[in-house]
Amino acid sequence: MQSVIFIHGAWATPRCWRFIAPIFAESGYRTLAPAWPLKRRPVCEQLADPDPRLARIGIPEIVAYFKSIIRDQPAPPVLIGHSFGGLIVQLLLDQGLGAAGIAISSVPPRGVPALGGSPRKAVKRLWELFGAPSTWRGLVPPPKPDAEEAARRQAQGIEPQLVPESRRIFWQLVTRAAAVNFANPRRAPLLLIACGRDRCLPAEASRRNWECYSVSPARTDFAYFPELSHLSIGEPGYENLAAHCLAWTNARVKAAFLPAADAGELAA
Questions:
Q1: Nearest residue to 193 via CA among 209, 169, 212
Q2: Residue 224 near residue 196 (C-beta atoms within 8 A)
Q3: What is the predicted pLDDT for the residue at 160?
Q4: How far apart are CA 19 and CA 24, in angstroms?
Q5: Which of 19, 85, 104, 166 has its CA 20 to 30 A from that of 232?
């Protein structure tokens, strides 16, 4: 049975996959949605008493953690990540892990400005959001939505369960820890998904991320959902997103078991 590993993003928990993971399970996939290191406790406990060790968790530790899970699978799994989890998917694929990967509203790898502008501006923006680099050993409380976003969540019945996060992972976005080899010819197929109403990671950032992979012969696809926001995997309309991800995954899994000529025809 083909496994699919779902990787949540920063401040999130595996509960964010409660709508999409069952769709894959019902289609015959073995689904796993592990919590990031030190984030397995109930949400109420993490909010009331954050684990101070979380401050020492960075991107390399998260990648290493998922590497061990992937290597425990009987065959290379499909990897699906959201937001910061999308970056983890890209890093894992670049390192030869996974049969295929989907990155939804992904935090881009180093060198792809999430909000446009130069790397210097990216550092300035990180400083504004998370403080000086010297503070990266601390924790960051869950972000609070603005009034418009809060009203939309209430109207749509969206209840994201957010927890404190390591400050280290955000500052590592401008280091080698967040870098991939966009030209890697041996990388497994990758689908990047952008959402038109995403106010956290604008669709243009995902498009720039996708364009960076044009230097590689490895398959890289792009999909755009104009009606969805950054909470696409848990808001009304997620069904269309899930259907697209499932169809893409089915095609990639099928192609992996076909002779080369047939696989090429399927991919066309």
A1: 209
A2: yes
A3: 66
A4: 10
A5: 166
**Neighbour count for residue 150 (Cβ, 10 Å):** 12
Number of domains comprising the chain = 1
pTM, two decimals, is: 0.89
Query: Rounded to whole angstroms, how far apart are CA atoms 114 and 109?
Result: 9
**Nearest alpha carbon to residue 21 among 10, 34, 9:** 34
Tell me the CATH number at 162: 3.40.50.1820
Alpha carbons 202 and 230: distance in angstroms, whole number: 9
Tokens coding 234 = 């848990």
Residue ranges making up the domain that contains 245: 3-267
- Angle between the N-to-C axes of helices 59-71 and 84-94, in degrees from 0 to 180, rounded to the nearest 10: 60
Are 219 and 232 in contact by the 8 Å Cβ rule? The answer is no
DSSP-based three-state secondary structure for 261 = helix
Query: Which tens digit of pLDDT belongs to each residue from 49-101?
Result: 999 999 999 999 999 999 999 999 999 999 999 999 999 999 999 999 999 99
Q: In which band, very low, low, confident or very high, does the pLDDT at 226 lie, cut at 50, 70 and 90? A: very high
* Reported confidence tier of residue 121, pLDDT bands at 50, 70, 90: low
- The continuous run of DSSP H or E covering 258 comes out as none
Lookup: tokens for 213: 């992979």
Structure tokens at 10: 């920063």
Position 147 scores a pLDDT of 61
